[in-house]
Structures are given as structure tokens and as C-alpha cells.
Write a structure and sequence with these properties.
Elements lengths: L7 H11 L6 H17 L7 H16 L7 H16 L4 H33 L4 E5 L4 H12 L3 E7 L6 H11 L4 E4 L4 H4 L5 E4 L3 E2 L5 E4 L2 H10 L3 E5 L28 H6 L10 E4 L6 E4 L2 E3 L4 H8 L1 H8 L9 H4 L1
Helix pairs in contact: 1-2, 2-3, 2-4, 2-5, 3-4, 4-5, 5-6
The structure holds 1,5-di-O-phosphono-alpha-D-ribofuranose (RI2).
The site of 1,5-di-O-phosphono-alpha-D-ribofuranose has 15 residues, from helix 2, helix 6 and strand 6.
Length: 333
């Protein structure tokens, strides 16, 4: 337990997300839910609802501040806090049970969503397909593996995904699942695209207009696919859709340290060099053929329907004029 009363394990999870030891939009959402559960179970403050809500709000803020782009993170946190708000608990025990129950429910539903998406996506992949994937999306890996089990995947081109090389994680996991993988540098995407049947990628955030925010380089992959008339499928759970984009909030793009791109010594040797390291880019809806979610296969332009169906609690807040930026106070108090 730290001085501020936040359990060490919770701080470790927050730090793990920040440093990308825990990464991937789905995984960080589940880790945040787990952190709220731990924070509740290890709460040592006064056993009244108001103190508990303040504390949980503080933990929620800490978790949300770790990484800015993937909306799955604040959506997971808000899913739990909004259930606490709706439950309107009469005792501390009721409040604590509500948080633990919703955190577990979020994690279960999230894992189940990945399973449903994988089964749905596998049906969209034709026999003997060559697939290209970018970065490491656990949903994309799962979907490709499912299709491979159905005998539909000939091979997968997996980009390195500089500068963090998450593509190596995708390649490793696919290989472990028996899928033939060819690792390529990001710059070889257009070179191989003529051979590719489907591009399958994950998402960190889907905006209300259907634009897909995903790992840097995704929009170039989609551009090359469109030129070659190759279908681009985005596999994404519904908690990756952003309610705040509906009221015009842009999706914040994370910029990471220059040293992920060039070594410190090189920067020191060339002090006038500037390094730009955006972690994500935006693929417009016209470059995406379908978004495959756990509630069905939709054209990106139908993102608004997903928001209405699944994130109604957030849209209600927007209607009341309350939600321009996600704030825990909207829910905790
Ligand atoms: P899953 C990752 O972000 C990648 O951009 C990936 O496409 C996305 O999260 C979704 O991942 P990062 O955490 O939820 O590596 O499908 O920056 O695993």
C-alpha cells in the first residue's frame, strides 16, 4: 500500500500500461478492470460510500492517465464506474461488491467478444488466403488462427511494426498456433500487396464516423490495399468505439519517446535533429471494408449504431451535455 492508499499492485498495473509491458487495446482495458477490482478488495480507508467513491475515482483517474489513444481503457473504467453510479448502493459492502462484479463482468465479456469476433471473421476469409496483418492485435491473431484451423489460411505477412516491433509478437503467436508467417519490414507492404487476399488488423479506437485509429502505419497499409483492391477487415470489440467522438472530440494521438526510434547516442551526436514518434494514425472509413465486432459485421459508417446499442450510458451523458471529456466524477458521484 502506498502513502496515498493505492495498493502497490494497482500502481504496478498502471506503470505496466504506461511502459507498454502490458499493451494491446483489449489487454489494457482488462488490466484496468482488474486494477479496479484489486483496488476495491484492498481498500483500507473509511467504510463509507462517499470516501470509497472518491478513492475509486482517484484510481480511475490514475488508470486513465496511463495511455491516451485506446478508448478501450476509459470505456472499461467507465463501464465499471457507471454501474456503481446506477446501482446507487446503500452500504459500503454493496458498493464494493458492485465494482468487483462489474470488473469481472467486463473481463468475461471482453474475452467472450474476442472469441465471437474470431469465429465471425474466420467465415469471411476465403479458402487458401494470403493475409497481411500489421502490429500485434490479439483479436487479429485470434481471428487468423481460427481461419487457419478451418484450413483457409495459406500464409500471413506480418509487418515488423517499427519502432516498437509489436509485429514480432504477432509473428511469434501465429507461429506458435501453427500458422505459416512471413515477417516483412513495414516498407515492404506495397511490394507484397499484389499477393494478399485480405488485410486483417485490430483497432485502438473507432470514431463515430467509422474512422479507425490503430498502430502507426495502418493507414499506409490500408492505402496500399485499396490501390490493389484488397479487402481490409478491422476486428474490434464494441468497447473500442469512442462515444466522445460523437460530440466532436478528436482522438488524442500518443507520441512516444524519440529513443524508441533512434539511440540516445545518435541524438546527442546530431543535436539539431528532431524526431517525431507518433504511435497511432487514422484510417478513414473509405479505406475499411468492414468492422467485425461481437455484435456483427458492420460497414464503418454504421459505427454510430454500435455506439447507440452498446455505449448508450455514455450517449445519455452527452445528451445531458455532461460528457465532452470522460471524467470519473460524472459517474462516481
Ligand atoms: P488488441 C495495439 O496498440 C495495436 O495498435 C493493436 O492493433 C491494438 O492495440 C488492438 O489490440 P499498442 O498497445 O486489443 O501496441 O486487438 O500500442 O490486442
Amino acid at each position: 500500500m502506498t502513502e496515498q492508499g493505492v495498493p502497490t499492485k494497482v500502481l504496478e498495473i498502471a506503470e505496466g500500461i504506461k511502459t507498454m509491458r502490458i499493451r494491446g487495446a483489449g489487454k489494457i482495458a482488462r488490466a484496468a478492470a482488474e486494477a479496479l477490482k484489486i483496488a476495491t478488495l484492498e481498500y483500507g480507508g473509511p467504510k463509507d460510500i462517499s470516501s470509497f467513491k472518491k478513492y475509486i475515482g482517484k484510481v480511475a483517474d490514475l488508470l486513465i492517465s496511463t495511455r491516451p489513444t485506446a478508448v478501450s481503457l476509459p470505456n472499461a473504467v467507465m463501464y465499471i464506474l457507471s454501474s456503481l453510479h446506477r446501482a446507487n448502493p446503500g452500504t459500503f459492502d454493496d458498493a464494493a461488491n458492485t465494482v468487483v462484479f462489474s470488473a469481472e463482468k467486463f473481463i468475461d465479456e471482453s474475452i467472450n467478444a474476442v472469441k465471437i469476433i474470431s469465429e465471425t471473421a474466420a467465415k469471411r476469409i476465403s479458402e487458401n488466403s494470403v493475409i497481411l496483418t500489421h502490429c500485434h492485435s490479439s483479436v487479429a491473431v485470434s481471428a487468423i488462427t481460427e481461419a487457419y484451423k478451418l484450413g483457409r489460411v495459406l500464409k500471413v505477412y506480418s509487418t515488423e511494426t517499427r519502432p516498437f516491433y509489436q509485429g514480432r509478437i504477432a509473428a511469434k503467436q501465429l507461429l506458435e498456433n501453427g500458422v505459416p508467417v512471413v515477417q516483412i519490414p513495414d516498407s515492404a507492404v506495397r511490394y507484397v500487396m499484389h499477393e494478399v487476399d485480405h488485410v486483417i488488423i485490430g483497432a485502438d479506437t473507432v470514431a463515430s464516423n467509422g474512422a479507425v485509429v490503430n498502430k502507426i502505419g495502418t493507414s499506409q497499409v490500408a492505402l496500399a490495399a485499396k490501390e490493389a483492391r484488397v479487402r481490409v477487415y478491422v476486428v474490434a470489440e464494441t468497447y473500442k468505439f469512442s462515444p466522445t467522438t460523437l460530440v466532436g472530440e478528436p482522438v488524442p494521438i500518443e507520441f512516444r519517446e524519440p529513443t524508441e526510434i533512434v539511440p540516445e547516442a545518435w541524438v546527442q551526436k546530431h543535436p539539431r535533429i528532431k524526431v517525431l514518434n507518433p504511435s497511432f494514425d487514422v484510417t478513414p472509413p473509405e479505406y475499411v471494408d468492414a468492422i467485425i465486432t461481437e455484435i456483427g459485421v458492420i460497414p464503418p459508417q454504421a459505427a454510430i449504431l454500435v455506439l447507440m446499442e452498446r455505449l448508450g450510458w455514455a450517449l445519455d451523458k452527452i445528451k445531458q451535455g455532461g460528457l465532452t471529456k470522460i471524467k470519473f466524477e460524472d459517474y462516481a458521484e
